[in-house]
Amino acid sequence: MASLLAGCASYKPAPLADSAATLAPPDMAIVSADAARIDRPYLQPQPVDWNQPLTPNALAVIAVLENPDLKAQRAKVGVTDAQAFAARLLPDPQIQANYDKLLSGPDMFDAFGGQLAMDLNQLRTAKVERQSNEAAKKQVRLDLAWAEWQTAGQARLQGVRILALTRQLGIAREGSASAEQLFAESERAGARGDISGADVDTRRQAALDAAAKARTAENDLAAARGDLNKLLGLPPETMLVLATPADPVTPPDASVLVNRSLDRRLDLQALRAGYDAAEADVHKAVLEQFPNLSLTLAGARDTSDNHTIGPAIGFTLPLWNRNRGGIATATATRAQLKAEYEARLFQTRAEIVAAVQGLETVRRQRADLIAQMPAIRRVADSSAAAARRGDLSAAAAATAEQAARDRELTLSQLDQQIAEQTIALELLSGEPSEGWTR
Questions:
Q1: Comparing C-alpha atoms, which of 223, 245, 255, 421 is closest to residue 348?
Q2: Whole-model pTM?
């Protein structure tokens, strides 16, 4: 008995950590060390130097390591591992003992007895129970891997968004300063009577619009920085320095990506594992319609000192229930998972095709704008030269320069869309863009 008790688990309290400790920034040295040896099928180990600009891949690795939601989901993996471990264990036997004190009567002995019982039903369903739990464990691990892939992609997306918005904010501030200067000059000219009040109002509205664009870009940049810090598990006030990413690659045909994604996407693999678990649950429900068997070995001595020993078998008589409700529930659940998997296949194909077509449209728009930019730039430069010679008003030259600046802002926005939509297509296809050319 002492040896049995020695093998039992003991209770160890695990109180919640202090809020300040939980919200403290991560140890940068530990994060750098973990990033250098990370092992994921879609991520390569990355050297993370917090004193140098962080690359998109470094952001992805940090997000996988430090994202709070992923840490919580990794804890869920431990629960399914424990459930799979429990399914492999044999049921414990049950022991009962009784003692009857003789109070009166002709006999002279006290009675006692003992029973050793074993539930055989768990042995019958042990195999399918293990299959179900192993498939569920695999599903949870694949769901975690899919969540890590999505989080890594979102971190990269926020990185390119921050860089694009930083450029756009600079352009918007230049436009706002130019419009404000032109409005101030118009106010002075209007006070002298050189231009009409309508012209002054036009310049005022242009200055207000330019200032609004600058404020919007500033707000968008602040929101993107906050979103990135949240993804990386960093304090909100953290200001990361980001490296310029490589130019996005051109994706292959949508049909190629669709065919590759149906095999590679981790969420589809997780759904297939969930369906395997449902198959095992249906098998288990069918087995449970048969009688539940229990085997008992009993020994006893009565008050007359008669000793007996013998087995006893008990079972449930399957007349009305026969686990028909459990079978119906398991079968319906399997059908539901099958429909969800097929729906995800259709959704995957539609989203990838739409993303490829969207990228083609944006790339065509960018090419058209690139073709127009030299002529727009020449007009702005010639207008500025004419204004310096006195052949053209400063307002007209400023208007031409603002038109060129607006095109540069549009070009930056198109570059941002291409970069973000390429990353989004990577997330949809389930693999990095480097794999598209292999």
A1: 255
A2: 0.82
